[in-house]
Amino acid sequence: MTESGIDRRDFLKGAAATVALLMAADGLGMSQVLAADADVKPIAGPAVKIGVIGLGQWGRDIVTALSKMPSAKVTAICDTYEAFVTRAAKTVTDAKAYSDYKELLASPDVEAVIIATPTHLHKEIALAAIAADKHVYCEAPLASSIEDAKAIAIAGNGSKKVFQT
82: domain range? Predict the structure, then answer.
């Protein structure tokens, strides 16, 4: 529990569960899934400031879902492909756009990051996010090799922040 009253671990677990449900809800529209979750009491305190790295199909769906959650505020978006950034910026109009994830990680306006890039990029970004002292949710699969997965797991385990995949 932080001094603002937000339990970030519970928030990220809830956000991850919501994103997983959205991704697995074959045939369900996002509005149907969100309507089913409408009875859930909002988390007290300020919204968690989130940066989303990777704005392809998964990242776009994550940005859309987070934009509808009162306990989350997408403050930064990042992708190397400008068209993806432009498209996501239409959903979260007040988020700062980046083409370099390192700049996003340096931002004090980002408390947590969601990594939705291609798998082979997860290790570098996840290790940098952990080193930047951010809460991290990394889309599955965690890594493209066992060695990369071990390196990410060791770093995540050593972090005082939440790390989840």
Answer: 8-164
How far apart, in whole angstroms, are the C-alpha atoms of residue 84 and residue 142? 22
Q: Is residue 71 part of a domain?
A: yes
Tokens 């756009």 belong to: 97
Whether 51 is covered by a domain: the verdict is: yes
Q: What is the reported pTM?
A: 0.77
* 2 assigned to some structural domain: no
> Cβ distance 79 to 59 under 8 Å?
yes
**H or E segment and range at residue 23:** helix 8-24
Percent of the chain with pLDDT over 90: 72
Q: Are 110 and 76 in contact (CB under 8 A)?
A: yes
| pLDDT tens digit sequence for 14-57 | 666 555 555 555 444 545 545 555 555 666 789 999 999 999 99
Pinpoint the alpha helices (H) of 25-144. 30-36, 57-67, 82-89, 101-106, 122-131
- Side-by-side strand order, sheet with 163-164: 96-98, 72-78, 48-53, 112-115, 135-138, 163-164
What CATH code is carried by the domain that includes residue 144? 3.40.50.720
Domain tally, the chain: 1
